[in-house]
Design a protein that fits this description.
The complex is a heterodimer.
Chain A: H1 25-33, H2 36-58, H3 63-79, H4 81-94, E1 98-102, H5 105-119, E2 123-126, H6 130-134, H7 137-143, E3 147-150, H8 153-160, H9 177-187, H10 199-216, E4 219-222, E5 226-228, E6 233-238, H11 242-248, E7 252-258, E8 262-263, H12 269-280, E9 288-293, E10 303-309, H13 313-317, H14 333-337, H15 339-344, H16 355-366, H17 383-387, H18 394-404, H19 409-422, H20 425-441, H21 453-456, H22 469-475
Parallel strand pairs in A: 1-10, 2-3, 2-4, 4-7, 5-8, 7-10
Antiparallel strand pairs in A: 5-6, 6-9
Helix pairs in contact in A: 3-12, 9-10, 16-18
Chain B: E1 2-5, H1 9-13, H2 16-28, E2 32-34, H3 44-49, H4 52-66, E3 72-74, H5 77-85, H6 87-93, H7 97-107, E4 110-112, H8 113-120, E5 133-136, H9 140-145, H10 151-157, E6 163-165, H11 180-183, H12 185-201, E7 206-209, H13 212-225, E8 230-233, H14 234-239
Parallel strand pairs in B: 1-2, 1-3, 3-4, 5-6, 5-7, 7-8
Helix pairs in contact in B: 4-6, 4-7, 5-7, 6-7, 12-13
The chains are: A alpha/beta, B alpha/beta.
The complex binds iron/sulfur cluster (SF4).
InterPro entries (chain A): 4Fe4S_Fe-S-bd (IPR017896), 4Fe4S_Fe_S_CS (IPR017900), FTHF_cligase-like_sf (IPR024185), Helical_ferredxn (IPR009051), LUD_dom (IPR003741), LutB/LldF (IPR004452), LutB_C (IPR024569), NagB/RpiA_transferase-like (IPR037171)
Region (Disordered) (chain A): 1-21
GO biological process, one term (chain A): lactate metabolic process
Chain lengths: 476, 245
């Protein structure tokens, strides 16, 4: 019998897309923390969503069972992902769509750019999607002379502001309405110079601009929330209806989808369409749920392409501890409850996937060496695990990834020494005495060497006790 | 009942008063407390910093030290959380299935203080007296890893003289997170600032919790501010009596 060793699946390539930040999390976070406007905007926005979501989740008596069902369906999907994808491909093809397989961002961008170019269009309208942000599709289209127009209001704000999204669901969560008004006045074609910062006025300005674009653009690009293997049906959920415009008006529709988004049957949607709106926006039911199966002659887009993207997902799948990160339905509940995210915002995470899910997903997609600070961007408080509608145990994956991450040499040495001491009670007791002496000799509560000085910079260490507990016990 | 005390390295070295209070309290309730020699640290710092391999001897040491006892108590939610949810994983990761099952067996007999009192010993009124205005920070590992729920609050409400005031946004992390406070010192400080703001808004004289690590963090911040609020471990409040406040 011969055995074929296939090697580790490839991670997402560098130099393309937005999975890697320019600087480690602590440095990026430090800058974000210094921005009082950002802190207010984030605190207000996450607090509001948390409250709304908690209230509607409370209404569902079988929420725990729904979560368990969601987790079980996703675990089943991952266990037979290749088969389901082949089934999906067959169903989409049978319904008149064309399926493309993209091993990574470079290939996906090449496929989409080629498809758009073949239609002769120089502009595409875009449905809000994480995956096209992940692969940097807008940059690739622009480089090919094609203008991408984001049609999700918040995504449009980010695009016009030449900014980066900072939240999965509310990409402009870091902006308040005064800032949005300024961006519109600066960058929105044909905007009324008398625009106020009333939410209704801002929405009307965006509507006027987008309407024209919808009616005059023949190609749309979307992501997908779900793809049903059994029927070949794609599903996009959104709140504004702008996605619905993109999915129905143009002649050509190109959908880019991470391979993990496939679900086995139509019936499985029942579970996720209950979980997703309550966990994400705190709505009982999603406002616009668009589903389409291939091409329907005379109705909607007459050309449909589905691009199935790997870009590191097979590598995540291959890790049994990290794999549940692929279960994510991008509801962003984990961001909204995360005390770190609430203070740093999304940009600090570098990747398009911020917050707790980003801290476990980005390092796995890129290989942990390229995002080594992200698994540490958490106190392991566990709020994300409690909030996640598909029960992803994010803290355990973080701890696992920390073990995989490259460690600073000085830290490794110190950790090994500490473990050795802790495993030898006599040395341990001696170390306790030494610690007390050095603390008494030094300035109390201050002046620890770096990196420990980071802790004492804003807090006092307590007075050293005259006796350790074990000394007290021995003398008792 | 014969109860083995796992003091935890932090309480042993920096906060012996929390451990001494645990001993006083349990003895006052008529139980025998033993302090098994050879105990050191649960290894949580190693595991959470990315060194589960280095934690294996500490997991083994914990299992060996406490296996002979039916009931083990620690005045720390996060150390008990580590024993319960990490020890077997650390052993399995190192390929030591025998240690993993031993660790699971000892973990099932290891309790955080409020769990021990309410679930095992069946008391909520421990006869304590503590005439102060107190707010309780639930700490993430007690709250979400151990699910101690309202056990600490029930114990506190039964303390004579004590006024328990609710802490706003209580379930939010204080920002300690072990090495998080060092690696992400700025974010940790921002979280601490909000926690302190909430503590101060209660008008409490004392902020209590079941974890010395979080108390060290919050107490360190309050002390730097000269805020006039003390941090006191739950065990110390429960150990206080009219004779010795
Ligand atoms: S990890 Fe869970 S909570 Fe976070 S975005 Fe994904 S599904 Fe939502």
């Amino acid at each position: 019998m011969t055995r074929t060793f296939l090697g580790m699946p490839a991670t997402a390539p560098p130099g393309v897309g937005h999975l890697r930040g320019d600087e480690p999390f602590p440095a990026a976070a430090r800058r974000a923390l210094a921005d009082p406007q950002l802190r207010r905007n984030l605190g207000h926005a996450t607090g509001t969503i948390r409250g709304k979501s908690a209230a509607v989740i409370d209404e569902v008596p079988d929420w725990p069972q729904l979560r368990a069902a969601g987790a079980a369906i996703k675990a089943d999907v991952m266990a037979r992902l290749p088969d389901l994808l082949v089934q999906l491909e067959a169903a989409v093809t049978a319904a008149g769509g064309v399926v493309h397989w993209a091993p990574d961002a470079v290939e996906a961008n090449r496929i989409v750019t080629g498809l758009v170019a073949a239609t002769g269009a120089d502009r595409v309208i875009k449905v809000k999607s994480m995956v096209t942000q992940e692969i940097g599709l807008n940059e690739a289209l622009s480089a090919a002379g094609i203008t991408p127009v984001e049609t999700d209001l918040a995504e449009l704000i980010v695009q016009l502001g030449e900014d980066r999204p900072s939240h999965i669901l509310v990409p402009a969560i870091h902006r308040n309405r005064a800032e949005i008004r300024e961006i519109f006045l600066r960058a929105m074609p044909g905007v009324d110079p008398g625009l106020t910062d009333e939410p209704a006025a801002l929405a009307a300005a965006a509507r006027r601009y987008l309407r024209q674009t919808f009616l005059s653009t023949p190609v749309a690009v979307s992501g997908a929330n779900f793809a049903v293997a059994e029927t070949g049906t794609l599903a996009v959920v959104e709140s504004e209806g702008n996605g619905r415009m993109c999915l129905t008006l143009p002649r050509t529709l190109i959908t880019v989808m991470g391979v993990e988004k496939v679900i086995p049957t139509w019936r499985d949607l029942e579970v996720f369409l209950q979980l997703l709106p309550r966990a994400s926006t705190g709505e009982r039911m999603n406002p616009y749920t668009s589903m389409w199966t291939g091409v329907t002659p005379g109705d909607g887009p007459q050309e449909f392409h589905l691009v199935l993207l790997d870009n590191g997902r097979s590598a995540v799948l291959a890790d049994p501890v990290g794999r549940p990160a692929l279960h994510c339905i991008r509801c962003s509940a984990c961001l909204n409850v995360c005390p770190v995210y609430e203070r740093t915002g999304g940009h600090a995470y570098g990747s398009v996937y911020p917050g707790p899910i980003g801290a476990v997903l980005s390092p796995q997609l890129t290989g942990v060496a390229d995002n080594a600070s992200l698994p540490y961007a958490s106190t392991l408080c566990g709020a994300c695990y409690d909030a996640c509608p598909v029960m992803i145990d994010i803290p355990s994956i973080l701890v696992h990834l920390r073990a995989e991450a490259p460690h600073p040499r000085a830290e490794s040495t110190a950790m090994a020494a500490a473990a050795y001491t802790m495993d030898h009670p006599t040395l341990y007791a001696a170390a306790q005495r030494a610690a007390r002496l050095s603390r008494l000799a030094g300035q109390r509560g201050r002046g620890l060497p770096p990196p420990l000085s980071g802790w004492t910079a804003s807090r006092d260490l307590p007075d050293p006790p005259a006796q350790t507990f074990r000394e007290w016990w021995a003398a008792r | 009942m014969r109860i083995a005390l796992f003091v935890t390295c932090l309480a042993d070295t920096v906060f012996p008063q929390a451990a001494k209070a645990t001993v006083r309290l349990l003895e006052r309730l008529g139980h025998e407390v033993v302090f098994p020699a050879g105990q050191t640290c649960c290894g949580q710092m190693h595991v959470n910093t990315g060194y589960p391999g280095e934690a294996v001897p500490l997991v083994r040491r914990y299992a060996r030290t406490f296996d002979p006892y039916d009931v083990v108590v620690a005045p720390s939610g996060s150390c008990v959380g580590s024993v319960r949810h990490q020890h077997a994983w650390v052993a399995r990761r190192a390929g030591d299935e025998r240690l993993a099952s031993r660790a699971e067996s000892v973990a099932a007999r290891t309790y955080e203080l409020s769990e021990l009192l309410v679930d095992v010993l069946g008391v909520t009124d421990v006869g304590a007296y503590f005439p102060h205005r107190v707010t309780y920070h639930p700490t993430c590992h007690s709250l979400r890893s151990l699910r101690v729920g309202d056990r600490p609050a029930r114990l506190l409400r039964a303390v004579r003289g004590l006024t328990l005031v609710e802490l706003p946004a209580a379930e939010q992390c204080c920002g300690f997170g072990g090495t998080f406070a060092v690696k992400n010192a700025d974010t940790s400080t921002a979280m601490l600032a909000d926690k302190m703001r909430h503590v101060l808004s209660t008008g409490a004289e004392v902020c209590t919790a079941g974890d010395v690590s979080c108390l060290m963090h919050i107490g360190g911040g309050l002390s730097r501010l000269r805020a006039g609020v003390r941090t006191v471990h739950l065990a110390e409040i429960l150990a206080s009596t009219e004779e010795a406040v």
